[in-house]
Amino acid sequence: MDYKGLYIRLNEARDAVEILDQTRLPCHETWLSLSGEDELCEAITSLRVRGAPAIGIFSAYALYVLTVRRHAPDYKSFLVSFKEHCTRLLATRPTAVNLKHAILACVLAVQRANPQTVAVSTEAIRLTAERLQTEDSEICRTMASHALTLLKPSDTLLTHCNAGPLATSRYGTALGPMILGAERGMRFHVYCDETRPLLQGARLTAFELRRAGVKHTLIPDSAAFDVLKNRGVSAVLVGCDRMAQNGDFANKIGTAALAVLAREAGVPFYVLCPNSSIDRSIAHGGEIPIEMRGAEEVTSLYFTEPVAPAGTDVYNPAFDVTEASCITAVITEDGVFYPPFDFSEKEA
Fold first, then answer.
1. Set 193, 241, 248, 279: catalytic member
2. Could you confirm whether 38 is annotated as catalytic?
3. What is the CATH number of domain 8-139?
């Protein structure tokens, strides 16, 4: 699979969703073929598929597969089961708004299907999933192009978590400028935080940058300030799981601290956020629900033996909220936006 290739797709029979299992990277490139509701939902909650845009794309394909395999005998039965599938998928992860947007797009497609039959509605869901994936690919490339106008060909950059092709469709959000820049002959050096506790920076970002031929150095999260102060970092680039009207945004835990450190070090802090990740129904970051994860991710998941005494209390939020005051610019497919931010009016 090419590093820009699609990591979410329908199988040839169009009755299962195929994904590259991100929990097995970087050592094992394992493809899964998923068709049952339990395993499709588990793929999201267990982070086999992750990244806000990718979750949205995957959920749309999942809805199509579930509808195909349900074999509803009539339109009324189809609507009942379709609503059940939407509700189950929406409950898998609460923070990334792309999931909600993708499900809503499928709901609207069914409502607009003409004639309103099981076959026509099912096909409308598939076409919606394919459209979301194609649009995301184009959006990622456009955002990357906008971001490259802010960077120099030999810049040293820093990123947190993973916001590349694995988390989107192609190119990625925060990694998009690095990958597209490499295609254009730019020679970035990227520092990537390991991103505890799930190590997305180590397992996934380093994996993707290596494939893209981008020079990179993996660092412990706790080394970020030293790198910002002493290693000539020109900019920090991060992705976004949900942004409020005022520019506050949720991203992987540790992003907020990195933003404060970047401001203290005088390093520009850029957020690459597609319109689909902007939630115009909320005014500020305090309204963003934060997903809580299990204790084992902190104490034992990537260790041969537990690293904390049995029964130790663990607080493990998956995301934190960075205040808009820490952001130098927000980059969407529509361009580069500077403070003060107001994303309340424009339709996604």
1. 241
2. no
3. 1.20.120.420
